[in-house]
Design brief:
- Helix 4 crosses helix 6.
- Helix content is 15%, strand content 40%.
- The chain is globular.
- By secondary structure, the protein is mainly beta.
- The strands form 8 sheets. The chain has an 8-stranded mixed β-sheet, with no helix packed on it. The protein has an 8-stranded mixed β-sheet with strand order 25-26-24-23-30-34-33-32. Strands 20-19-18-21-22 form a 5-stranded antiparallel β-sheet, with helices on one face.
- The protein starts with 34 loop residues before the first helix and ends with a strand.
Length: 658
């Protein structure tokens, strides 16, 4: 079933000026915006909004055609562009199931229209979208994405978009998303279900909708008369779900309505109750030619034998030797997928999605004697997986689970700079399902898989003029190591890499060396000698002892937050600094030590400094042992990061005494 993905979020609501206190009723007439909408320059509840949904209406109706039910979805949206950045909302996309000229079930996008309304010299000018502004892209063998661009859109434009999707999947209603990434003034969802279908209806989110459910009589095209149930949901003045720091998919936390079919009862024809579970999903995946059908022979068996993979005794080293061999043959095309193309095509083109690479990897690992399985998931940047709703639609990719001893380790075809169990942060989900044909599938939590560490030692000598010379040794493991490798690999050259690092640290880097920074590996070591100029005035030197940057900013600045906080991965940062002071200088006053820990102990920090004659020692340890923090925990997480950031900016006064 399709998912409507509109970057273009059109809607309308009769606007009043900023000074008016009452909320206006929505303008539900289409084709001519009101003067208030055309003259609107800002949205009072959210002055920073780049655009605002004025009105959005989604209506679902059942139809009969060739003896079968169909589901028709009608969508109308209107949006007001308020700022330059809001012009991006002129670009839209609609995805739906498309089977081309093949027989079988499909969806048809029809009556797609878009219009821009502008006031030019006091007159209303309408500009309609032409056919050459619409493009179709086949995302998979069954999924099509139709992209479009509304013309003549600038600050002040009102956009209207409307379209219809006619679907053979009458039993499958997509989740309706009430909130968008911009404010929504008015939105409605209206669906009337014939008496033959029973749906479980669920609403979730932080901004409850107006709801009305009532029985009704209905006439379905073709003359069928029956009773039914009408569901109506209305949302007003819903806040924007903007991208936030330390949050992966804001829209997944928005107000939404889900409708799941529980039964079909057509007298004299059929009576069926639905209780699909994840075992059914497993079977469907394993029976699919482009999923289970890709599990089979090892296409690189000869290459593995020639490389002597079987002679590597350490299991993890053997796994990574297999992965290196595969990555030498196939490069990741920077696409994530659930289904795969054939191994022969992928190897011939020497490029493939993570799914295509992963299936070949599984077959290679199994040929080497390992238990290896796909662990399917919904990546963090696509929102959380609703496990109570068993459907493959909830999934968008998978990683490879490999049995090593009595536990699983994980790899993914997208990894370019990491190691075993060092997954990209957006794949560190709380629910992944290991799918197996041979044994019972199981749920696993990957959030704690990729624990990362950095340990730094700064040994410096401070001069009387404020010049600090320091040797810095740092060892990175896990995703911290992968991040450094990535930065080095993406730099124009090594000189640029050093220059950008020097700018970040606000110092001169006299020398720098890296160990294990090419290709794949569990850790990276960095050694450098730096010169940093501290502020000095008279007999005083003002020193920040850390030299390295542990926090470049405080990522949480909102006073309140209704959405959770998600750290990218588990990590522990340790930094020790030992600085020799100039002769005749002492520390005038040390900053107060900081010890802070959450109630569950999953966030902790220790910052402390001590002075012994001419030696200044400082220590900082930050530990994050949990990725997800609820909105109720936000005040502590915010204060935790605020305190750390503030203390890392502390300057110690060094004073001359003789």
């Amino acid at each position: 079933m399709k998912t409507i993905q509109l970057t273009l979020l059109g809607s309308m609501l009769c606007l009043v000026s900023v000074a008016m206190a009452q909320t206006p009723e929505p303008n539900l007439k289409w084709g001519k915006p009101t003067d208030a909408e055309l003259n609107m320059t800002t949205y009072a509840p959210d002055p920073d909004a780049e655009a605002v949904v004025l009105c959005s209406q989604t209506e679902l109706r059942y139809d009969l055609s060739s003896g079968s039910f169909k589901l028709n979805t009608y969508t109308k949206k209107r949006i007001k562009i308020l700022k330059e950045d809001g012009k991006d909302h002129a670009n839209g996309g609609i995805s739906y199931i498309y089977n081309g000229h093949r027989s079988g079930q499909c969806e048809i996008l029809a009556k797609l229209k878009a219009t821009a309304f502008n006031m030019v010299d006091g007159k209303l000018v309408k500009t309609k979208m032409e056919g050459d502004m619409v493009n179709h892209e086949d995302v998979t063998k069954t999924l099509r994405l139709t992209k479009f661009t509304v013309p003549q859109v600038t600050v002040g434009t009102v956009i209207e978009v409307e379209y219809e999707i006619d679907s053979d999947y009458f039993y499958d209603i997509d989740d309706w998303q009430a909130q968008e990434d911009i404010p929504v003034m008015y939105t409605s969802f209206d669906v009337t279900v014939p008496e033959y279908f029973s749906f479980n209806v669920d609403e979730r989110g932080f901004h409850p909708l107006e709801r009305k459910i009532e029985g009704t009589n209905m006439t379905i095209a073709g003359g069928l008369q029956c009773s039914g149930t009408r569901y109506q949901f209305v949302g007003r003045n819903l806040p924007a779900l903007r991208d936030k720091k330390l949050l992966y998919a804001p829209l997944s936390y928005g107000q939404r309505v889900s409708m799941e079919l529980s039964a079909i009862q057509i007298p004299g024809i059929m009576s069926k109750y639905f209780s699909t579970d994840w075992n059914d999903v497993d079977k469907g995946l394993l029976d699919d030619d482009d999923f289970g059908g890709r599990l089979g022979k090892n296409p690189l068996k000869t290459e593995m034998q020639e490389a002597g993979v079987a002679s590597i005794s350490d299991p993890k080293e053997r796994i990574m030797a297999i992965y290196r061999l595969l990555k030498d043959r196939v490069k990741w095309n920077e696409k994530y997928a659930l289904y795969s193309e054939s191994a022969s095509k992928v190897l011939k083109e020497r490029s493939g999605s993570n799914a295509s690479i992963n299936f070949i990897l599984i077959n290679m690992l199994r040929d080497a004697g390992f238990e290896a399985y796909p662990a399917v998931m919904r990546s963090r940047d696509n929102g959380f997986l609703t496990v109570t709703r068993a459907t493959a639609k909830e999934l968008n990719t998978f990683v490879v689970a490999i049995k090593v001893g009595d536990k699983y380790s994980y790899l993914d075809g997208s990894i370019e700079d990491g190691w075993l169990d060092v997954l990209p942060d957006h794949l560190l989900v709380d629910r992944a399902r290991i799918v197996s044909k041979d044994k019972q599938s199981e749920w696993v939590n990957l959030m704690g898989v990729s624990e990362s560490k950095s340990r730094s030692m700064v040994k410096g000598e401070l001069q009387a003029d404020g010049t600090l010379q320091a040797d810095i040794q740092t060892k990175y493991t896990g995703l911290e190591a992968a991040s450094l490798r990535h930065d080095f690999r993406m730099a124009t050259d090594s000189a640029t890499f050093v220059s950008e690092l020097a700018q970040e640290l606000n110092c001169e880097i006299e020398s720098l060396s890296l160990t294990n920074h090419h290709g794949l590996g569990p850790d990276v070591e960095r050694n450098m000698h730096v010169t940093k100029q501290c502020d000095a005035a008279g007999d005083m030197i003002y020193l920040n002892p850390w030299v390295l940057t542990l926090m470049s900013e405080n990522p949480l600045t909102d006073e309140k937050r209704t959405l959770p906080v998600e750290f990218p991965y588990l990590y522990t940062d340790n930094l020790t600094s030992v600085i020799t002071l100039p002769e005749g200088y002492v520390v005038e006053e040390l900053p107060q030590s900081l010890m802070i820990k959450s109630e569950d102990g999953k966030l902790s920090c220790v910052i402390a400094s001590s002075a012994d004659g001419s030696m200044l020692s400082s220590r900082c340890q930050i530990q994050v042992s949990k990725l997800f923090f609820s909105p109720d925990e936000y005040p502590f997480v915010k204060s935790f990061l605020e305190e750390i950031y503030k203390r890392l900016q502390d300057v110690i006064v060094i004073k001359k005494v003789s």
